[in-house]
Amino acid sequence: MISTHPASVLKGRFKMQDGVHAGGPGRGLRQREAGSNSGLTTRPRKRTRGAATPRDYRDEQNHYQPVDGELIKGQYRVHTLLGKGTFGKVLGCYDTVNDMEVALKII
């Protein structure tokens, strides 16, 4: 499981790569503990292709709400909310194409 403590996230473990913050050797989702407190909304999974409609992932203030297991751009599987602020959220994800852990900033 990726630590959500800010100090562990910022210790040089992540580097910039084509607009995506990529981590070191990933452990993958298969080794993540089941039922862990990831800080994400859990919803039943639907088999869908492509982007979700805005009403599926927005709260009352029209802010994006990440969902555990959500696939972003067909490549990044969301599993942890690493942080949030005024201008966006940082998500811990698993890059299914490059087989590694990454952090995505959603603005």
TrEMBL record:
Gene3D superfamilies xrefs: Phosphorylase Kinase, domain 1 (3.30.200.20)
InterPro entries for the chain: Kinase-like_dom_sf (IPR011009), Prot_kinase_dom (IPR000719), Protein_kinase_ATP_BS (IPR017441)
Binding sites annotated in the UniProt record for ATP: K105
Keywords: ATP-binding, Nucleotide-binding
Keyword ATP-binding annotated: yes
Organism ancestry: Eukaryota, Metamonada, Carpediemonas-like organisms, Kipferlia
Region Disordered, residue ranges: 1-64
Signal in keyword set: no
Protein name: Protein kinase domain-containing protein
Any GO molecular function: protein kinase activity
Domain Protein kinase residues, every copy: 76-107
